[in-house]
Design goal:
Layout (H helix, E strand, L loop, with lengths): L2 H19 L4 H22 L6 H19 L10 H24 L13 E15 L9 E12 L1 H4 L4 E3 L3 H10 L13 E6 L10 E7 L10 H9 L3 E6 L6 E3 L5 E3 L9 H31 L10 E11 L1 H12 L5 E5 L7 H4 L5 E6 H5 L16 H11 L4 E6 L10 H4 L1 H4 L5 H20 L17 E3 L12
Helix pairs in contact: 1-2, 1-3, 1-4, 2-3, 3-4, 7-15, 8-9
Length: 485
């Protein structure tokens, strides 16, 4: 809980005790009233109100009404309540306030882990329209494919000083609500959580140009879902472009205030029909990624943003993504050799990649629970597992001609590659420290791209690490084929 939230709870309990057990003069009542009002108002101004604290606000409102009535009609007070009644009322106030304490601890206002690199980071948000493609998922046949992207880029530390930090957008709450079926209002507080990103800063001139990474989020998710990993990469000198894919992302809001929401898949009678549907859906996302890279190529020549001209190293382009975004990553690599390396965070293999493998270095990260689903004798399958997964995985990894890594991570769930461990440690990081959970993803993703886009060998990719005992390298699918003799 934040400090002022704790103070609000303490003041409420103190005021409850003061009303029930304290003396009954005007000065005492005024002091109690001002204490409650001041605590609640300061909390709202400084911390901002949030839904987890509503039970406490309700108790505070009751106290304020009681105290105002006492001050307005001091002579109309009834006789003192018995000690038993006073004790029961105290217990009720304590219990209701305790609900707020529980909810605030269950869904905390967390602090993002510090990036470990030497750069600060800036961002711009842009709407991109691919006029060469019709929007096949829209009801309007004249619509063209539109995307929203954020570009996060390195900034000198001095340049970022004094600039206001960006906060998580409301889209993150929308995404969590869709994925877990939890009311989005419970995550409205994410907009009060500051990131390490500033707006309106100049791109650092410390390097002549920077390697570029595209990020594709999961289905029903958002380009802001894995900001801890994005910040880590940017702090080490990468330009990262987060893509939202309309109709499969949770909510895509455009500058004109239009929003496109997630469009649920229809019901399919067979696994084969769903499989074909997913190949089509990933094909749309792959076209998005290729279009974004085309746009970046144009910006590198003539940038309307006045930021990136000549600064994008298009010979060092990678892509990574989570779940459906991981599937997008693998298939984008298979279709476009401009992408030199990629990381799939527990994605599938829908499309050409399942049959041809990859020519570029590729790392696949899977949670331990999902990995157990690959065992035919294990009848309890993870919900993200599907019938064709095992043969597709084997085909893609064995037919690849470049380096491949297959990592399994114990104590993680499918959504652990996002910020979910920080959003609710007690729900989603029961067996692992939430910051360590985050550090696993960002450290291995960074190490992979450092090795294959920057040419910096990484000991972390050589095998098991005492710092990350949860991470295991699969010996069958982890193959270093590019090592020169």
């Amino acid at each position: 809980m934040r400090a002022l939230e704790v103070i609000v709870i303490l003041v409420i309990l103190a005021a409850t005790g003061g009303i029930l057990f304290g003396k009954r003069d005007r000065r005492w009542n005024v002091g109690l009233l001002l204490s409650v009002l001041l605590a609640v108002v300061l909390h709202g101004i400084i911390d901002h109100y949030r839904i987890q604290m509503v039970p406490a606000y309700a108790v505070a409102l009751v106290l304020i009404i009681v105290l105002i009535r006492r001050l307005a009609k001091p002579q109309s007070e009834s006789r003192s309540k018995s000690l038993v009644k006073k004790s029961l009322l105290s217990i009720v106030a304590l219990a209701v306030s305790g609900v707020s304490v529980y909810l605030s601890l269950l869904l905390p206002v967390f602090t993002m882990p510090e990036p470990t690199g030497s750069y600060a980071m800036g961002t711009i948000s842009r709407q991109l329209t691919d006029k060469s493609r019709d929007e096949t998922l829209s009801a309007d046949p004249s619509d063209k494919r539109e995307l929203m992207v954020n570009v996060w880029y390195p900034v000198d530390l001095d340049e970022a000083k004094g600039k206001k930090r960006e906060h998580y957008p409301s889209e993150l709450g929308e995404a969590i609500s869709l994925v877990f079926g939890i009311p989005k209002q419970l995550f409205s507080h994410v907009t009060t959580i500051p990131t390490h990103v500033v707006d309106g800063a100049k791109l650092s001139a410390a390097e002549a140009n920077y390697p570029v990474l595209l990020f594709s989020p999961g289905i029903r998710s958002t380009r802001f879902q894995s900001l801890t990993a994005i910040e880590e990469l940017v702090s080490h000198g990468y330009i990262v472009v987060g893509m939202d894919h309309p109709y499969t992302s949770a909510k895509v809001t455009f500058p004109d205030d239009r929003s496109i929401f997630y469009n649920p898949d229809p019901e399919f009678a067979t696994s084969a029909e769903l499989y074909k549907h997913n190949i089509k859906g990933i094909g749309i996302r792959v076209a998005d990624a290729r279009f974004v890279l085309d746009t970046l190529t144009e910006w590198n020549t003539k940038d309307p943003n006045q930021l990136f001209q000549g600064k994008l190293d298009l010979n060092r382009v990678g892509i990574f993504g989570h779940s459906y975004g991981g599937a997008t990553t693998a298939e984008t690599l298979a279709q476009d050799e401009r992408f030199k390396a990629g990381v799939s965070l527990e994605g599938a293999f829908w499309g050409d990649v399942a049959h041809t493998g990859l020519k570029q270095p590729f790392m696949y990260m899977m949670t331990g629970g999902t990995a157990k689903s690959l065992d035919p004798s294990n009848t309890k399958k993870d919900k993200v597992f599907y019938e064709e997964f095992a043969p597709d995985l084997e085909s893609a990894m064995t037919k690849s001609t470049s380096d491949t890594y297959y990592l399994t991570i114990d104590h993680l769930i499918h959504q652990s590659f996002t910020e979910i461990a920080l959003l609710s440690p007690s729900l989603f990081a029961k067996e692992i420290d939430p910051v360590h959970n985050i550090d696993i993803t960002r450290s291995y993703v960074k190490a992979f791209f450092d090795q294959y886009l920057k040419g910096e060998p990484q000991a972390l990719l050589d095998g098991s690490s005492p710092k990350y005992p949860e991470v295991k390298f699969d010996e069958v699918y982890t193959k270093k084929r590019m090592i020169s003799e």
